[in-house]
Design brief:
This protein is of the alpha/beta class. The chain is built from 13 helices and eleven strands. It starts with 13 loop residues before the first strand and ends in a 6-residue tail after the last helix. The protein binds flavin mononucleotide. The site of flavin mononucleotide has 20 residues, from loops.
Length: 364
């Protein structure tokens, strides 16, 4: 066994940073300070998060952008190699890779993931996504199948067997037929690095319940959390397992509520990249089941602000109040996004983290 993964650490409400590897982060905005996701930007951001004791850094898996003025998300770093680079320059933060099951072969994924687990000394994590964007899949000549999570179940089983098998093995599944598979080294973490599944719908939840350590899932309103958590709990109990749930929020933390509201309005409404917001929402609505249906009508600002995730906008006190409510609904933690991570993470870490400690969400 390697050292304890940060997601197994003591904090009641764990925190991560999501999507620094991609242009815009999760925002779709034209403000001049919008996130460019250059390598130096990523290095600075992970350094801040690592030193502050945040638990994880989590990339988005994107292969093409959403057009508009800035071709938002078109620039994005591939996530195994991104995590490998960050693993070498950090000390304690968990480093996830977000991997599309239909695009990346599991034997390749097993070796790449084990490599990052070695570089990081057991801090690797795998965020499994089945994906939704047919234009991205067309780049690989892959069609979205109607048994995406059946494939995902075989995919993760193969990775586990790669690590556990002491002899070459054959695999005869519906989606994979493999001969004489070996993969050394196995990951440091046993039986494999921590896994999350990013999903919203029933089949994704069942897959997470059966095969992953955590589900990564959004909500539209905090009060809906209990319903989502209850549902995933039921599904995981049926599997005899206990699967934690992480969520995702976009953050604008400022000294005053007025400043936070004004900035949110500016970047996500007045200076949003409107054409890209239209494209993103239209594509997500048609192809992805990752949000409540009415979210598209109600929350255009949230799509510009953070791809339809929940907004934490306000003073440090207000943000911590909301996090207490999210934790009380049963979430294990949240992955956070910012317009410009490097301008905003220091304020967040300096001002919000101590209040989280006072509120009993985190230990110093
Ligand atoms: C929190 C979250 C993060 C996601 N991240 C990605 C991603 O990085 N790349 C991607 O192609 N899809 C991503 N997805 C989409 C899922 O892979 C999936 O296609 C989508 O949620 C729709 O199907 P579902 O019903 O299985 O959730 C994400 C979904 C959620 C809920």
């Amino acid at each position: 066994m390697g050292p304890l993964h940060p997601l197994r650490g003591p904090n009641k409400f764990k925190l991560g940073v999501f999507s620094t590897n991609a242009d815009g982060g999760l925002a779709i905005t034209d403000v001049p300070e919008r996130w460019r996701a250059r390598w130096d930007d990523n290095l600075t951001a992970v350094g801040i998060a690592d030193r502050a004791g945040l638990e994880f850094f989590l990339p988005i898996a994107r292969w093409r952008g959403f057009g508009g003025k800035n071709q938002v998300r078109e620039w994005s770093f591939e996530t195994f190699t991104w995590a490998a680079g960050l693993a070498a320059v950090t000390q304690r933060i968990g480093l996830f890779m977000t991997v599309h099951v239909p695009i990346v072969h599991p034997v390749y994924a097993a070796k790449a993931l084990a490599t990052v687990d070695y570089i990081s000394g057991g801090r690797a994590g795998l965020n499994i996504v089945c994906g939704w964007n047919p234009q991205e899949f067309a780049m690989f000549g892959v069609k979205i199948g109607d048994d995406a999570y059946g494939q995902a179940a075989e995919w993760i089983e193969i990775i586990e067997r790669c690590y556990g098998a002491h002899q070459p093995f054959d695999y005869a599944g519906k989606h994979y037929q493999l001969k004489g598979v070996v993969s050394r080294p196995a990951s440091i973490q046993v039986p494999r690095p921590l896994t999350m599944n990013a999903a919203f719908g029933g089949p994704g939840r069942d897959f997470a319940a059966k095969s992953c350590d955590f589900l990564f899932s959004p909500f539209a309103n905090i009060e809906d959390g209990r319903k989502h958590i209850g549902d995933i709990r039921e599904r995981s109990l049926r599997q005899g397992r206990d699967v934690g749930v992480y969520t995702v929020c976009h953050v604008v933390a400022r000294e005053t509520q007025r400043e936070a509201d004004d900035y949110y309005e500016r970047y996500a409404v007045t200076e949003a990249d409107h054409a890209a917001v239209d494209n993103h929402m239209a594509q997500k609505k048609e192809f992805a089941n990752s949000h409540d249906k009415d979210a598209f009508d109600l929350y255009r600002k949230r799509f510009a602000g953070g791809a339809g995730t929940y907004p934490l906008v306000g003073t440090p006190e207000k943000i911590v109040d909301e996090m207490v409510r999210i934790a009380n609904e049963g979430y294990a933690g949240a992955a956070l996004t910012f317009v410009n991570y490097n301008y905003e993470l220091p304020f967040f870490c300096d001002r919000v983290l101590p209040l989280m400690e006072q509120a009993g969400l985190r230990v110093a």
